[in-house]
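User
Take a look at the entry that follows and flag anything odd:
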Amino acid sequence: MIKALQIEMTLRMREIQRWRYKAWRWRYSILLGTLLAFILFYRWQFIVKPIIVDLVNIPGDKSPKVVVKSTFKANNESQSNRCILPQLRLHTPEIDALHQKLLPLDCTDVPDWVFVDEKLVLQYTEYASKNLDTSKVTCNVKYIYRETEDSSTYEYIENVPIGKYIIKHDIFVIDCDTSLFNTWSRPFLKFVEQQRFRKPAAPQKLDVVMIGIDSVSRVEFQRSLPLTYEYLINSMGAVVLNGHNIVGDGTPQAYIPMLTGQTETELPLTRKRYPEANFVDDVYPFIWKNFSNAGYVTAYGEDVHEVETYSYRLKGFRKAPADHYIRPFFREIEKVIGFRKELCIGAELLHDIWFGYISDFMAGYKSTSKFLLLHQNRYSHDGNTLGLEDAAFAKFLKESEEKRLFENAVLMVFADHGARFTGLRQTAQGSLEERLPFFSIRLPEAMKRKMPMAFENLKLNSQRLTTPFDLYSTLSDILKFESLIESDFNSVPMPLPRSMSLLRRVPENRNCEKASIEPHWCACIAWHSILGTPLATELAIAIVNQFNAFLRDESDICAKLELSKIVEAEQYAPDKGVLQYAGAADADGFIASFSESKKTDDYISHRLVFETVPKNARYMVTVQFNSATRHLVLDANAISHVNKYGDLPHCIISRNYFRGLFCVCKDRI
């Protein structure tokens, strides 16, 4: 009986324990569920609430309705907010590893048969005289004249007498043969003075010589062209602008402000994909027109045809923009050798032709005021072969000085921006170098004697923040220099204009906001790293998702992008207060409008560098992000594809350049 009672009591105790356990487990489940719900709610509200993307300046949308806010920048009156120029390193193991030793170019494997002497007479080369029966050689000349940007007219002169025939036009092709199976041909670019361009002598006016180079930072110029740099600075007394900062992406956003004082989007529409686009010379107030109207003879050209500044994306020129315009020459050679395939034209090096043309132009119009602008692309746009012309460049400068060709000239040797597609751009320093191109200015001695304050200001400004806009005002001062007096160079206009002559004093406290440089392009903003944080990942994913949204209508031909890795992530840290970004200031959405209000707002600039797959595209993107509202502002002007994409977007690039930044054509995977 007692034993039965003990068994029953044990069973009851176990039942009570089971009930207590179930009750405890039920209460625990409720508590855990409540806690989990709270965590999920909190995470939704403050961590993973979807990021809302506002788009600005997207090409194709001519009337963007989005008004966005932005961060940039701190109190103008604070001395700490002036631009602190970064100290770029000339050499590091990482940078030096990207500069392979260059072998000298040899163009003699196919020797020329004829050449043009100093009197423009065709002569047989030494090779032809020794190896050919010149009595059996027949040569024809084909002159090439510009008709439109992409077409030419030709004049044929057959069986010209070698040793007597005088060339009459800058651009021509010579074809020679001794038989059906022994032929030779090559295009020529040779300066020929045109009497109709000879203007009345104006010795009091300053000549302007502008030699541009694509994709070369201030320190890269020193690395790749040390002989040229040394001669420019130490022998010619050129002044290097150490704080010269770009204001946009690519060559047009350097040259348009420099030559018009405005941005592309402040000017009438010229983008050729639009039916209503204008020719650039019809609507752009190029400053070389002012020089031409003042009696200058002008020369302009670039050493590429396919991707020329005003013809690749823009509609180009209706009429030849200068008295001497060399585009037809490079159109002709690209039909034969292709774009950027060779640096030899016949048995001549391209840069020797280039420098020879400048020398002959300056000598040929010795008694006429001159404006020359030539831009070189082939040696530095996609690679690093610039060093191949260093000795020749330095020699050209030395010989020009000895011949006194630049005696009355303001000489500018400069670059449009730093490297964008080379291995250097992938380094930690590369993004700064892209934003700080080389720019040097050499003033003639007579000018320095007449206006010593102008030279002193230029030297002072070499350590201050400058932009392409400033070159427009500088060129304007050069054009009217003889009418200026010393006191003109002592004053500082107030309020400060966007474009300031570098012959006048640029204020020490000038910063990117005052100079109209947006955060994405500013080399003097204080950033701190957020690499490895959840925020960096969220922002990168949101941006890539938006890239895919841009390609939604092209999903049949363009691959979907996925975030591969984040290389850099930085956040802008303002000092005191921030300005209000009011949105796009023009109908096409390229211009950012900033308010002068000191009102603090919650949008902060973030700059990310990341890669996507397939094909490992690398992007640098600057966005504005409001952590309270989870709104992210993505501006098309602040998206840079920083490694070479080649023909990956071939299926779309000619139809939509903007989407081509993100498209990897499926047939290239």
